[in-house]
Amino acid sequence: MNTSVDAPQPLAAPPWHEAGSGTRITGVRAILTAPENITLVVVRIDTSEPGLYGLGCATFTQRAQAVAEAVDSYLAPQLIGRDPADITDIASSLLVSSYWRFGPVLNNALSGVDMALWDLKGKQAGLPVWQLLGGRCRGAVPVYAHASGRDAVEVEDAVRGYVEAGYRHVRCQVGIPGALTYGAPAAGGASAAAPRPGLPANAWEPDSYLRVVPELFGHLRNTLGEDVHLLHDVHERLHPTQAVRLAKELEPFHLFFLEDLLAPEDLGWLPTVRAQTATPLAIGELFTNPAEYVPLVKDRLIDFVRCHVSAIGGLTPAWRLASAAELFGVRTAWHGPGDVSPIGHAANLALDLAAPNFGIQEQHVFNDAAAEVFPGCPEVRDGHLWPSDAPGLGVDLDEKLAERFPPVGPLVKDAWTRTRLPDGTVQRP
Ligand code: MG
Asked: I want to staple 155 with a disulfide (CB 3.0 to 4.6 A). Which of 73, 149, 188, 378 is the partner?
């Protein structure tokens, strides 16, 4: 634990503390590991009960060391001696302890603590977290897979493969001739991966994108029919009027949802989109404050809340957000990429099982190394995630094995954050 002069004082114990569970937090630390070459951040909370510990996901892979520092130097000193039973009180206390709040670094640090406390509570109760949230609303959780290809035929083949494997929801991304795009390889084979003359090497070109994507979904509906749910991620790359155009042109192809059609900075355009098309919208991967959803949800401007659970502070704020969204007919679609640890995926799964307004879950299929580092790692079968009866979140961390996969730098896999427009202007990733 950090002993520097600016280490915060322990949280003041609430009046009921002595009458609590009697268990005390004895250690809090961040652990970094990268079994898939993506740095994952895990928080481990140890207690006064021998062998009783909790694990939470604090993964903000682009700034992993900053999150670890926030956990070790600023959160851990406040938590020693507290009763781990007081999850809500601890979450509320830590949130305001920095005065300035809701940034992604601190939120991820808070999430690591929050999920670890839920994991602990489940272990103490001998129940999985989804039971603590009220029990399950469904037997298993349907997930969506990522299909991509250099052209529409390759995407079609990938979707067919997933459908044969039991999936009913598939996200589809296609290559753009002569330019980079999000979520798909360059179009037309290796030789065409080179940019068109006049374009920067890392160019993203909206005009071609706006032409190719509706052609893709036209092809998919013509060849696959309507029995599979199709999704697409715009990844906040369009200007607002381009976004309105795309959402309208995709409407005949009946998407399950169109994701991040607008950047957070452009959300004032959402009423315009909504007035012109019935294409369902999922928004919020970049949100770091649940209150950002208030105007979107209260005015029924979106269909799915879609955040990175650890980026909004963890399971506690996500569960409340899901409940608030339910009152407005908005469903959940938690972010589920490879830069959420298996512990974070288990938290998503607990929310998915317990929320009446669950919509869909994004999947990530972890490699064998990750599954060994994280025993109990959630597994996808027949296009679904299946609940585990293991107490807590049900995922452990083999720290000895984790050391074999040390953290990697933030630049290893972030080429997609460095695209430019044809004139050289920086493009949102
Ligand atoms: Mg996305």
From this structure: 149
